[in-house]
Design goal:
The complex is a heterodimer of chains A (507) and B (313).
Chain A lengths: L4 H26 L7 E6 L18 H6 L4 E3 L5 E3 L2 E6 L5 E6 L13 H13 L11 E8 L2 E6 L6 H4 L17 H4 L7 E3 L9 E6 L13 E6 L3 H9 L5 E4 L1 H9 L3 E14 L13 H9 L3 H8 L4 E3 L13 H4 L6 H10 L6 E7 L4 H13 L2 E8 L4 H6 L5 E7 L3 H9 L13 H11 L5 H14 L3 E13 L3 E3 L13 E3 L2
Parallel strand pairs in A: 1-10, 1-11, 14-15
Antiparallel strand pairs in A: 2-3, 4-5, 5-7, 6-7, 8-9, 9-10, 11-17, 12-16, 12-17, 13-17, 18-19
Chain B lengths: L1 H29 L3 H6 L5 H11 L5 H13 L13 H37 L1 H16 L2 H15 L15 H35 L2 H8 L4 H38 L5 H11 L2 H29 L1 H5 L1
Helix pairs in contact in B: 1-12, 5-6, 5-8, 5-10, 5-12, 6-8, 7-8, 7-10, 8-10, 10-11, 10-12, 11-12
Classes of the chains: A alpha+beta (507), B mainly alpha (313).
Chain lengths: 507, 313
């Protein structure tokens, strides 16, 4: 079976044809000297539903922002600005929020945006059982005052409400489409882009084109926006490096490859990782009920080295669970617990635990390295870390059922009131033993009633949980968002993936 | 013949039924916090209860299974708990991508493995040694590693192919071909090396049989001996290997699809399993089992057609 001359000629023709197609491909993309008019984002997950009430936080929010305007616009630095709402004001007791609305906006199906439409959306959000439905828990009802004014009545003050109106709860869909089957697969909003249904393929890509006569040209910077669904990290890296997408989320390791291909990094801190010492009353593990033991644990870690080794330097060592952009963060608490094994041992001795402490944690997939490091550093001060069975997708139920006394975890760092209700208050999922003291509760109440000063009030909560060593935070993680030189991207606080408004064609 | 097919299809249905019970029970055990997974950290117990009632999670397992089964028998596989997409719909858009890839890879494997295997068996000597060494190398490198190497060299460095799939609605045949080329190559290398090995030994075994000597002694040309008699007798062994490879490929394709971001069954299966999206997982499993049953049936029929001896048994 030798290759005859004919076969050889055929082979040469085929490879030549392949080479030609390749040239053709690169030639078209190579002529992009002018400003780009398209944006292709490598999205890490497909939307579950385009119903605005099913919108989520963080990277799950961005695609909704293409189709839907929100009542409030959150600037990259976290400042809240008018969008569909022109103005909003609380009453004296922070229990009623009056919101003035724009009058010149229509939805993509032609329906006008007005007070009735806003009410319909907020009512829909409250009963649609979406992943962020808790955002409107404090709102008892929404009243239409006049054509361009609504009132949100609250059962109790919620310092996060204005923030929520820039998030899932604030997204406004056409009242005609809300609750229909159609809006699940095709968004109907007033946003800068409309979905190109013909080009959109579930689990592959969602394509949007600029909406004609959109009211706010400043944030409509592209003619076409594509969200290419790339769940796999390797696929995202390859797509970015080969120019298939303009921007996507990577990690420290794949980031090196992207940097080698001259991609630009936008780094933001979104999550913190560390130990949640949850059994602070010592219900199941008496040692954890002793504050000195918890403080000793905090002194056991060489956080700087952990960041350098485990995260390749892509993170910031910290002793506090509240995030830098949250308002609850303070410089003093950043290095509150130094790396001091000797002090840790003496604290254990004072607490009467010089013979050793056993700490049980579940294994968390993806945290193998972190667990190994933590185990080793704790053993240096005489604490044995027992790593149990891996958590499963029932872990939230397991946590609230007090199955774990401690866990090494990664948590989102949100706004002060959000974070308080996530990890500190007795309602918080990550406070399953419902630990509290009158002193702490007073501080939490101050945050709730704090209105505009909620952040400042939350500094006291932060200080309390750091001093009482409720947690043993290790570091805040850098989210590594990369983009090519065709687009400019501005980071967004508390979001690994920036808001859609933060992208613009590179100059 | 007809009774044979009907019998096989009947036993296939029994297998489907048994697997459905097994998978449903396994999913039941792990589906405790579905409502929590959907609604997130901050949902209240009341909100969770409403969601559970909405999904029918408050019903006992038997009720849930029978309502699923009645639906499935009427062609309604339910809707995804997480995306509200009808499962039948989800499968219908993804099966073409996966099956195109698998079938193209299988056809190529069958042709290339046969050519190489027969060449090695007939020529022996250095040809055989090269095939043997190639088989060891091919078998020892997993498909996804080959995939990543191919992407790095052919897509990223040389720009000959897209690094991830560009298949979308209305995409032309060229988009399909370019998008599927690397995944198919990644899939078929293991198959070719494994298949060639089996076909080689089957052909060698046949070549040593008495009937070959008889045919040769009657002056029948070597070509006719090989293609008309030896290959036909060696075919059942090759077919069995190929059918096993196809079934194995249904698993291997999951990783390949993820790496190349192909909108096929792989990402659907992975996402659904990770979230315990029961209706989708059930749909994916039923589809996979059905493919296995059909492939086995086709192989049996082909074997019977090639080799009369099999038909009797």
């Amino acid at each position: 079976m030798k290759l005859g001359p004919k076969a050889a000629a055929a082979a040469i023709t085929v490879s030549a044809a392949l080479a030609l197609t390749a040239c053709g491909g690169s030639a078209t993309s190579g002529t992009a000297a002018a400003k780009t008019t398209t944006l292709t984002v490598g999205a890490i997950q497909e939307m579950r539903s385009w119903d605005p009430a099913q919108a989520h936080v963080g990277h799950y929010l961005q695609p909704y922002q293409a189709a839907y305007d929100s009542l409030v616009l959150r600037e990259p630095d976290g400042k809240l600005s008018p969008m569909l709402a022109t103005e909003w004001k609380y009453n004296d007791t922070n229990t009623k929020l009056t919101v003035d609305l724009r009058t010149d906006v229509t939805f993509s199906d032609g329906a006008p945006f007005n007070a009735e439409a806003a009410k319909a959306n907020l009512d829909h959000f409250k009963k649609a059982n979406g992943p962020q439905m808790a955002q409107l828990t404090a709102v008892s009802d929404v009243a239409v005052v006049d054509a361009d004014t609504i009132e949100l009545n609250l059962t109790s003050p919620d310092p996060s409400l204005e923030f929520y109106l820039s998030q899932a709860a604030g997204l406004m869909g056409s009242p005609k489409a809300l609750g229909t089957e159609g809006i699940k697969t095709e968004p109907v909003g007033s946003g800068p882009y409309v979905m190109d249904k013909a080009a959109t393929v579930k689990d592959s890509q969602s394509v949007f084109t600029a909406r004609k006569d959109y009211w706010n040209k400043d944030i409509q910077k592209f003619e076409k926006v594509t969200f290419k669904i790339l769940i796999d990290l390797t696929a995202r890296t390859n797509a970015l490096v080969s120019g298939q997408v303009d921007a996507t989320l990577l990690d420290p390791k794949t980031g090196k490859q992207a940097e080698g291909a001259k991609m630009n990094l936008v780094a933001t801190e979104v999550d913190w990782q560390g130990l949640l010492l949850m059994d602070r009353d010592g219900t199941k593990n008496p040692a954890l009920g002793n504050v000195k033991v918890r403080q000793a644990i905090n002194h056991a870690f060489d956080r700087k080295t952990i960041v350098d080794q485990v995260l390749m330097g892509q993170g910031t060592p910290t002793s506090q669970p509240f995030g830098k952009a949250s308002g609850a963060w303070t410089e003093d608490l950043e290095n509150y617990y130094s790396y001091d094994p000797a002090k840790a041992k003496s604290l254990l001795k004072e607490a009467g635990y010089e013979t050793g402490v056993v700490l049980d944690v579940p294994a968390v997939p993806g945290f193998e390295t972190q667990l190994a490091v933590v185990k080793q550093q704790l053993s240096d001060i005489g604490i044995t870390l027992n790593v149990g069975a891996a958590i499963t997708n029932t872990y939230t139920t397991d946590i609230s059922a007090q199955k774990f006394t401690a866990i090494l975890f990664s948590l989102f760092q949100g706004e002060p009131w959000v974070a308080t209700n996530q990890i500190v208050s007795t309602k918080a999922l990550y406070n399953p033993f419902k630990n509290t003291t009158p002193e702490l509760q007073a501080k939490i109440d101050a945050v709730e009633k704090g209105g505009k000063d909620a952040g400042k009030a939350a500094q006291e909560v932060n200080k309390y949980v750091v001093e009482q060593a409720w947690f043993a935070p290790l570091y805040r993680v850098n989210q590594m968002y990369y983009h090519n030189s065709k687009v400019a991207v501005e980071p967004q606080v508390q979001q690994a993936v920036p808001s859609i408004y933060n992208y613009s064609p590179a100059k | 013949m007809i009774t044979f097919i009907l019998k096989r299809l009947g036993s296939g249905l029994v297998v489907l039924f048994a697997v459905s019970i097994l998978v449903f029970s396994l999913l039941y055990v792990s589906s405790g916090s579905i409502a929590r997974n959907i609604l997130g950290d901050q949902a209240t117990p009341e909100q969770l209860a409403v969601k559970e009632a909405e999904l029918g999670l408050d019903q006992p397992i038997m009720t849930r299974y029978f309502s699923w089964l009645t639906g499935a028998l009427q062609g309604d596989l339910g809707t995804s708990w997480f995306t509200s997409e009808p499962v039948a719909n989800a499968l219908a858009t993804r099966i073409p991508v996966t099956m195109t890839m698998v079938i193209v890879a299988m056809i190529l494997i069958a042709i290339i493995a046969t050519l190489i295997g027969v060449a090695a068996a007939v020529k022996r000597g250095w040809v055989d040694r090269v095939v043997q060494i190639g088989a060891i190398i091919g078998d020892s490198v997993p498909g996804f590693v080959i995939g990543i190497i191919l992407v790095t060299i052919l897509a990223i460095q040389m720009g000959l192919f897209p690094a991830t799939s560009t298949i979308s609605t209305g995409a032309g045949a060229d988009a399909w071909m370019l998008s599927l080329a690397l995944p198919v190559i990644a899939l078929l290398i293991n198959g070719v090396t494994g298949g060639a090995q089996q076909i080689r030994s089957a052909v060698i075994k046949q070549l040593e049989r008495d009937y070959v000597r008889t045919l040769r002694s009657r002056g029948i040309g070597e070509r006719e001996v090989l293609f008309k008699h030896v290959l036909r007798s060696a075919a059942p062994a090759g077919l069995t290997v190929l059918s096993l490879q196809l079934i194995g490929m249904l698993g291997g394709v999951v990783i390949i699809e993820t790496i190349f971001a192909l909108p096929g069954m792989g990402p659907l299966a992975v996402a659904a399993t990770a979230q315990s999206d029961q209706p989708v997982v059930m749909g994916v499993v039923m589809y996979t089992v059905a493919v296995v049953i059909v492939v086995n049936l086709i192989v049996d029929l082909l074997n019977g057609w090639l080799n009369p001896k099999v038909r009797v048994s």
